[in-house]
Design goal:
Elements (H helix, E strand, L loop, with lengths): L2 E2 L3 H13 L4 H13 L9 E2 L8 E4 L4 E8 L4 E9 H4 L1
Parallel strand pairs: 1-5
Antiparallel strand pairs: 2-3, 3-4, 4-5
């Protein structure tokens, strides 16, 4: 099982995001649970990013919104970096 590490900067981004998008909060919470149990679960559509986001991965919350994460594999940690629409996070 992976441990979710929430940074202060991510907390601010998520708070701002959910102020506008409360309707997907339950989906987000479900995605986080699945992510901690099995980051390779097909429903997450996890994929590595390239370019300026190289070293990070993207997870789909739904068809419109993404969660950008950093995996610290040695310590079994997942650190959310950003949340938003495809255009906002890429």
């Amino acid at each position: 099982m992976y441990k979710l590490i929430i940074t202060e900067s991510y907390q601010k981004r998520a708070k701002k995001f959910f102020a506008k998008h409360q309707e997907i909060l339950k989906q987000y919470e479900k995605v986080l649970k699945i992510l901690c149990l099995n980051p390779q679960h097909p429903s997450l559509r996890l994929h590595k990013l390239s370019g300026r986001l190289a070293g990070l991965s993207s997870i789909s919350i739904n068809i419109s919104y993404r969660l950008i994460v950093h995996f610290v594999i040695n310590d079994d940690q997942i650190i959310p970096i950003d949340i938003g629409s495809h255009d906002e996070v890429y």
